Amino acid sequence: MADELFVDQDEVEGTASGVWSRMLAGNRRFAEGKPEHPNRGAEAREALVDTHAPEAAILSCSDARVSPDIIFDAGIGDLFTVRTAGQVIDDAVIASLEYAVDVLGVRLLVVLGHQNCGAIKQACKEYEALLHELTADAEDSLMAADSIADIDERILNAKSLMLRTVGFSIWQAHESELESSEDFERVHIARTIEQLVEQSEVIQHALTEDRLMITGARYQLDTGKVEVLSF
């Protein structure tokens, strides 16, 4: 107990967990309709002209309803945000996040999906269209099963970027007998995290050296709350 009295609170709050706790507290304020809008005035803006040191990086969907700075009630310079439809990753996304980790020194990386994601819906349509195309001529269930035996390869080689990326997450969800849009969103978040770790040596090293924590989250449009995911 005595040792607890001498814990360096600044050090504790500087950890990734501390950053995440502050972000979730900001989200609670936002969801309750009591945002504080911290560090958004002229003084904060002027202080960041020459440099910035964001506490976290966020990869989120580009959906206009999902603005990380707003839903986490964050200020100017607090969050390094990268946004694409369906939080799809490519070389530019990875390079941006690597810059945040290696140059800016962020301790936390959040992959943020959301409820009623349009990219998920579009990928579902394309996935179902592919299924129909592959099974249209099947005369029975055995033939239908044979016709989709290599559907994962067909998805990965599809012309549509949305099908190749988000659609593959939907296929993975179906393989695990998950059928709801909420399940698709959660599986896609998990797969995005896996891809980031697999494709970025910078992120791999930061995780190995305990310089970075990655977490998945899903924003609920109807409540304004962020659901923390565990995998």
Overall description:
There is one protein chain. This protein has 231 residues and is an alpha/beta fold. It has helices at 9-13, 16-31, 42-47, 68-71, 91-102, 118-135, 141-147, 151-156, 161-175, 181-199, 201-208, and strands at residues 56-61, 79-84, 108-114, 213-219, 226-229. Strands 2-1-3-4-5 form a five-stranded mixed β-sheet, with helices on both faces. The two termini are 33 Å apart. The relative contact order is 0.15.
What are the key terms here?
single chain, about 230 residues, alpha/beta, five-stranded mixed beta sheet, 11 helices, 5 strands, about 15% strand, disordered N terminus
Helix/strand layout:
Elements: H1 9-13, H2 16-31, H3 42-47, E1 56-61, H4 68-71, E2 79-84, H5 91-102, E3 108-114, H6 118-135, H7 141-147, H8 151-156, H9 161-175, H10 181-199, H11 201-208, E4 213-219, E5 226-229
Parallel strand pairs: 1-2, 1-3, 3-4
Antiparallel strand pairs: 4-5
Helix pairs in contact: 6-9, 9-10
Summarize the structure.
It is built from eleven helices and five strands, in the order αααβαβαβααααααββ. It is an alpha/beta fold.
Instruction: Give the ordered list of helices and strands.
Output: HHHEHEHEHHHHHHEE
Percent helix among the residues? 40-55%
Using only CA atoms, what is the Rg? 20 Å
Q: Average pLDDT across residues?
A: 88
